[in-house]
């Protein structure tokens, strides 16, 4: 039987990736949308040539790969440039994700994506799990993890869906305001529940 797809999302610093890792340890097939996004701009892929043509060669590193930091700076400054980039990349990322999900053989598979709600990626899923965390904790964790300053993290949070928006899409919510062992226990509880579902519905 074809596995049903669980969308897993959460804002920066929410612990979404730690949750995905534990689901994976439990034998669930996980597709990471961020990885798909990195793959579509690898050297030799058509998207990279288009990006360099649009933004100029200075968007590339010496080895010909994408200078992500430079690209991030450019698109954060301009809504128009961000839209252009999204129009180019979102369909390619979607194809990549669908191809990866086709390889799943676990009873259900996970699409882990920070932009599940903001893009049409949620339409590929039958159920959505949101890893939720209070914004103060989110800021603190993301600053610590990425050695980033408060301003940078706040700018990233602004580009993501609001907490309310994400929670409105959620079928399940995992509040991750404690430690890692609590998070893992919650993942195991949800996993047992998900194994009882057909097509993502009770």
TrEMBL record:
<dbReference type="Pfam" id="PF01121">
    <property type="entry name" value="CoaE"/>
</dbReference>
<keyword id="KW-0963">Cytoplasm</keyword>
<keyword id="KW-0547">Nucleotide-binding</keyword>
<feature type="binding site">
    <location>
        <begin position="13"/>
        <end position="18"/>
    </location>
    <ligand>
        <name>ATP</name>
    </ligand>
</feature>
<keyword id="KW-0418">Kinase</keyword>
<dbReference type="GO" id="GO:0005524">
    <property type="term" value="F:ATP binding"/>
</dbReference>
<keyword id="KW-0067">ATP-binding</keyword>
<dbReference type="InterPro" id="IPR027417">
    <property type="entry name" value="P-loop_NTPase"/>
</dbReference>
<dbReference type="GO" id="GO:0005737">
    <property type="term" value="C:cytoplasm"/>
</dbReference>
<keyword id="KW-0808">Transferase</keyword>
<dbReference type="InterPro" id="IPR001977">
    <property type="entry name" value="Depp_CoAkinase"/>
</dbReference>
<protein>
    <recommendedName>
        <fullName>Dephospho-CoA kinase</fullName>
        <ecNumber>2.7.1.24</ecNumber>
    </recommendedName>
</protein>
<comment type="pathway">
    <text>Cofactor biosynthesis; coenzyme A biosynthesis; CoA from (R)-pantothenate: step 5/5.</text>
</comment>
<dbReference type="GO" id="GO:0004140">
    <property type="term" value="F:dephospho-CoA kinase activity"/>
</dbReference>
<comment type="similarity">
    <text>Belongs to the CoaE family.</text>
</comment>
<comment type="function">
    <text>Catalyzes the phosphorylation of the 3'-hydroxyl group of dephosphocoenzyme A to form coenzyme A.</text>
</comment>
<keyword id="KW-0173">Coenzyme A biosynthesis</keyword>
<dbReference type="GO" id="GO:0015937">
    <property type="term" value="P:coenzyme A biosynthetic process"/>
</dbReference>
């Amino acid at each position: 039987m074809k596995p049903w797809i669980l969308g897993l999302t959460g804002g920066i610093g929410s612990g979404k990736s730690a949750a995905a890792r534990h689901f994976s340890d439990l034998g669930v097939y996980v597709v990471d949308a961020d990885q798909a996004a990195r793959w579509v701009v690898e050297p030799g892929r058509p998207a990279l040539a288009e990006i360099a043509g649009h933004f100029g060669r200075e968007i590339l590193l010496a080895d010909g790969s994408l200078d992500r930091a430079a690209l991030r700076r450019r698109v954060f400054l301009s809504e128009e440039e961000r839209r252009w980039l999204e129009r180019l990349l979102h369909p390619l990322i979607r194809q990549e994700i669908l191809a990866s999900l086709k390889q799943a053989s676990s009873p259900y598979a996970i699409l882990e994506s920070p932009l599940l709600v903001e893009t049409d990626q949620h339409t590929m899923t039958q159920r959505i799990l949101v890893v939720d965390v209070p914004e103060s904790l989110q800021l603190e964790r993301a600053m610590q993890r990425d050695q980033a300053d408060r301003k940078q993290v706040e700018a990233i949070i602004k580009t993501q869906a609001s907490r309310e928006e994400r929670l409105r899409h959620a079928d399940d919510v995992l509040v991750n305001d404690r430690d890692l062992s609590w998070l893992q226990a919650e993942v195991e509880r949800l996993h047992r529940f998900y194994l009882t579902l057909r097509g993502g519905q009770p």
